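Following up on my earlier message about zinc ion. Here are the inputs again, as you asked, copied directly from the submission form:
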Amino acid sequence: MPSKTLPIGQEIMARADHLARWSDMPGGLTCAYLTPAHRATAKQLRQWMVEAGLRASVDALNNVVGRWSSDVPDAKTLIVGSHYDTVRDAGRYDGRLGILLPIAVAAQLKAEGRALPFHLEIIAFAEEEGVRFGTTYLGSSAVAGRFDPAALAAKDKDGITVAEALRDTGLPADEIPDAARRSEDLLGYLEIHIEQGPVLLNAGLPLGVVTAIAGAVRRKLTITGEAGHAGTVPMGYRRDAAAAAAEIVLAVEKICGSMPGLVGTVGQLAVPDGAVNVVPGRCELSLDIRAGDDTLRDEALADVEREIAAIAARRKVTIASVDLLRAPAVSCAPAMLKRIADAVVKAGVPVHSLPSGAGHDAVMFGGVTDVGMLFVRCGNGGISHNPREIMTADDAELAAQVFRDILLDYSA
Ligand SMILES: [Zn+2]
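Thanks, got it. Here's what our run produced:
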């Protein structure tokens, strides 16, 4: 067990290592919703919350909640949280940093005998990644009052539903609505997370202030041309669906590469029933465009659509498009941004603001309460969702100092 006398950054790192011992896979870290490893992780988090002097409980979805109540009448609640489930063969810090860090800081403030003029809730969300059931933001959706009961019917690869997994764990699904917090009771939602990208690393900065969490548009495109003999149809007569797809991939790269804060990806690309000696008659591809600003994203999407129409006309193919997802960007609250930036400056670090391209539990709290996020630098080129994901104890220490100052600033 990591010792309590370690500096706070080292303690956070040691605890992340400690949690990694509970895994669904040998030789790596996978912690999917409600597996034995997941339940053991929740139990350990709860114990650390208790040791920190928090009142710890587990809700109906296995979110672990550590509460530090204030004596001030009518005090509001600041929620600080992130997720403890992981992707397959994950790193140790994605999600978990945002739980271990506030627990360590709360323990420190408690040990100093401090009181807070607001309630602090540190929430370890049980499910964000969607690995086992294809559900995402399960834990935070319930706390934000956005739980979709349809998720209870989602099945894992063995046909077990979320409802069955909850029952087998002894969790009362009918009490999920009780997890919802009321907007008017909240002071805000703050999440500390590794950046999961290379921006801070390349800038030589340990911390970043998140301005917004990118919204996304996802589409599936189906291109229909005409299949033909690869030997007999002259090039000029072809209606090649894959060649049209190739042009679309490059158009997306060019358009989305033209503005900072905008990203576009074709992550799936297939020639169904394709053969080495057949001109492709059909091609399917995905499209994912994200930006921290919905207007910027929609303008890029319109440019991509114009380009797709031009490619279709020139190549005499038809291109059908189905919307898979349209999620608005969540802007971080200006007051929260200022608080975080002030604390970063106080820690002697230049303020670097950046949007988050990845979704986080914070998304669920957009429109419910003020949202803020602090990013911490990743090493190894910024790689994440990978066992090579790393960060340093020094950066954890700085982030803890910033979080501590944010709490004290709220108290002032
Ligand atoms: Zn995460």
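One observation from looking it over: Residues 294-315 form the longest helix (22 residues). Hope that helps, and feel free to reply on this thread.
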